Structure formats: C-alpha cells, structure tokens
Amino acid sequence: MENQKAVLVFKAISDDLGDKDPYVNILADKGFSVQTIPVLEFKFRNLIVLKEKLDRPDRYGGIIFSNPRCVQAVADAIGGADELPDEWRKLSVFAVGETTARQAKDMLDLNTTTSSNVATTTSTIVKKRSLKPLLLPTGNIQLDTLDRLLSKQGVATDLVEVYTTVPHPQVEENLQAALEDSIPHYIVYFSPSGVHSSYPILKEAVDVKETKWISIGPTTGAAIESYGLKVSASASKPTPECLAEAIASCGPRSG
Question: 45-165, what's its fold?
C-alpha cells in the first residue's frame, strides 16, 4: 500500500555522512518517511594524469568542479590540500552547487565562484573569460555537457576523465527491501545516471502515473521525461531546503 508521506531518494551516498545526510534530516523534520537508495558507485581513474596537470598551474586559467566527486579526485591525486600548488588559489575556481563548493573548501582549501547549475556556471565562466584553458575533471557520463557549452562560447577546457559511474551492486536488493517496507508516493532523483540505473527495476513496482517524480535540476528532469514520465517538481537548487520545497509544491493527491 502506498504511503503518501513516504519518499524514496536515489542518490550517491557520501561515505562521511553516515546518519547525518542533510536531505534526509530536513525531510524527516517535515514529517516525511525517507529511505535513501544508493544506485551508483564511483571508481576513480587517471589520477596520475590528473596530478601531472595539477602540478602545472601555469598552463591554466583555473579549474572547474562540476560535482563533489571531481573534488575528491583532485584531493586523492595530490594527497591533500597541503600538496596542491598554491598557484591554484590565485586562479579562478568554479563550482557547480553548494555541496561541491563546500567540499572544495574543506578538502582543498579553495574558495570558489559557485553557481547552482551548469547553465549559470557556463555564463559565469564566459563573463570571466580566461586566455588559458580551464582544467575540467569529469566523469565518464558527461550528460551535463559543460565542456560543450563552454566550447560553443569560445572557452577552452582541458578535460580529464577522473571517475567512472557504475550501478551499485546491491541496487535491486536494496530497492526491493525498501518497497517491502512501503510504496513511496514521492521518488527523488539526483542525477540522470541514477534514473537510468534504477528505473528499469522501479517501473515494475510502483504506479508510474500516480507517483510524484522529483528531479534535482533540469538535466535530471530530462532523463525522467525520457521514459515518458511527467516531472512533478524540480528543485531550483541542489540544496535540502529546495528539495523540501519541491516536494511540498506537489501537494497531496486529491481523493
């Protein structure tokens, strides 16, 4: 039976959050029953190549962090903030999302120019146009097209793939366990890759027309719509508060 206060959240799980996930906590405070399903795993790669690039800040006008995993890759490649050449702190550092910016500060002691999504990040970078390329660590699934958007605006990037995204090995097991507990009324996706990894399983278990599908950002929304689903709401920013507002905007189903 569907629980209209049940929220199923598909997102990457940060190893250091434990039970302190702010998204879960804020929704729980608002009376929702929240379950989080880790649908993806991230495996780092090319860190030696990345370190070689990080050792030459003179070649770049700055660096772009599109998500927290890219920050983690840089930290792993160099061995911590103290090992990052100080010249990077004099260059432009761009971050997509507040979580990414916070991680850049905590892990690398880098202050960032922060935007809420890829489109606004692109506009910000274009306004600060650099004569040198921007270092762009990225994942293997480049659905945000940040490098292509910048290229169209004449901004050069040096792209290096630093992690791969693979399905979580226990996604089906974890999902079945969650559905046995309750059928969710709201399903939240944080990334397009999360949609593609879980929807083939999920569509067999829920009423896809009655479920409220919530996206974090327009790119994830487009991935939801690619399966013929209607996006009920989209968080304006990737923050716990904006997600709570998006869910509240759906309202209870009549009848």
Answer: Rossmann fold (3.40.50)
